[in-house]
Every structure is written in C-alpha cells, then in structure tokens.
Design a protein that fits this description.
Blueprint: E1 9-15, E2 20-25, E3 30-34, H1 35-40, H2 45-48, E4 62-68, E5 72-77, E6 85-87, H3 88-96, H4 98-112, E7 124-130, H5 133-138, E8 142-147, H6 154-164, E9 177-181, E10 184-185, E11 197-202
Parallel strand pairs: 7-11
Antiparallel strand pairs: 1-2, 2-3, 4-5, 5-6, 7-8, 9-10, 9-11
C-alpha cells in the first residue's frame, strides 16, 4: 500500500476499561485492536528486532495517545513502554492482518512453552439490573450473576442470558438494549470485571414476542 493510497483515521477512541483501541478509517474500515496486540506488535526497534516474542502483556493497557504530526500516533503503555510510533499505514495494516498476526504470535508462544495468563480464571460476580419491560419479562429487577470464564464482555453476557432463559431469549437481543456499566453507558464489547454493576435498558417501548406468548 503506497502512502498516497493509505486511508487515514477519522476516529480514534481508547476504551481503557476494555483495553481496546478502536479506529475508523476514511475508507469505512473499522478496527478494534486490543492493547496487548498493539504492545506485542509495537513498532519500537527493541520489539521488532527481538528474536523472541514479547510475553506477559495480557493485562497491559494504554495510558494515553500522543499525536505525531499528521501521520502517526505514539502509544504510551502502562508498563512503561513508550517508544512505539504507529503510522496510519501501520495501524491500518495491523487492523487488516490482526487475525493472521495474532495466530502467528500464539504459535510462537506455544513453541516457547509459554501459556498466556487468563485474567478471568478467578470468580467474578456482577450485579445485573433490569429496567422497564425487561424487569417484567425476567420477573425481577436485579440479580447477582457469577460470570463463567467465557463471558468477558456485555455481548457475551447477553448470549449467556439467552442460553439460560431460552423461554424469553428474544428480549436479550443487542438491538433492543442499551447497556450501562457502573451507571455509564457502555459498548457491547466493554469488558466486565468483578463487582461491576450492569444495567440493561430497553431502547424501545414494547418488548418482542417470546415463544410462550
């Protein structure tokens, strides 16, 4: 991809709770890049020239973003790494090749015998609140939910609720709901942590039909 044809980002958002950098480019492409992914694929010389993959960055986050002229950004990570400058071309390529790059990284870790730490191994409990017709459908205004390891964000939580409450599964469709975490509106990819208060707020006045109706 030449410099002349490289799309430019028109929106860059850091979601620190979810450890994600989301980007929207001028050609319509959208990418959600985990902070860990950006850290282990940093453009810094000490990372690019290393013969072994970077490890131990499962919980790394980005503290801030610093513009570098009109062509790049510098990412400041909370582990002290601050020498990676990501051009628009690099970010676009990392987005397009994310799956390939990540699978290659995991293969290298496996060859090293390194097992990535899973932050969700520990038990996590959230307080879940239902509003409007959702409270009527579920028969409760709130409940405590113990999250299994597979549930790391709101989208996966809704899938869990659909599986657990099959008789009212349609009411947990993402298109019908606006979620909040700790009283702040959140995206469906927002990470869930132990002790979070999650509210599901319907965005339409009437509920969908369910099988038992």
């Amino acid at each position: 991809m030449t410099k002349e044809t490289t799309p430019t980002p028109i929106e860059i958002n850091l979601h620190q709770k979810s450890c994600l950098l989301s980007l929207r480019f001028s050609d319509g492409a959208n990418f959600e890049l985990p902070c860990e992914y950006l850290r282990v694929f940093s453009t810094a010389a000490e990372v690019k020239t290393s013969e072994t993959p970077i490890t131990g960055k499962e919980s790394v986050n980005i503290e801030r973003i610093e513009p570098q002229g009109q062509y790049a950004i510098r990412l400041i990570f909370d582990d002290g790494h601050d020498t990676g400058i990501f051009s628009w071309e690099t970010l676009y390529k990392l987005g397009c090749e994310k799956e390939k790059n990540w699978n290659s990284y995991l293969e290298k870790l496996q060859a090293l015998g390194y097992e990535r730490r899973d932050e969700v191994d520990r038990e996590r409990r959230i307080k879940l609140f239902y509003f409007a017709w959702l409270a009527n459908k579920t028969g409760k205004e709130s409940e405590e939910v113990v999250l299994p390891p597979s549930v790391t964000n709101i989208s996966e939580l809704l899938k869990l609720l659909r599986n657990r409450r099959n008789e009212i599964a349609p009411v947990f469709d993402e298109s019908l709901l606006r979620p909040t975490i700790n009283k702040q509106f959140a995206e469906f990819f927002t990470r869930l942590e132990d002790g979070d208060e999650v509210a599901l707020v319907p965005n339409r006045p009437t509920p969908p039909a369910t099988p038992n109706e």
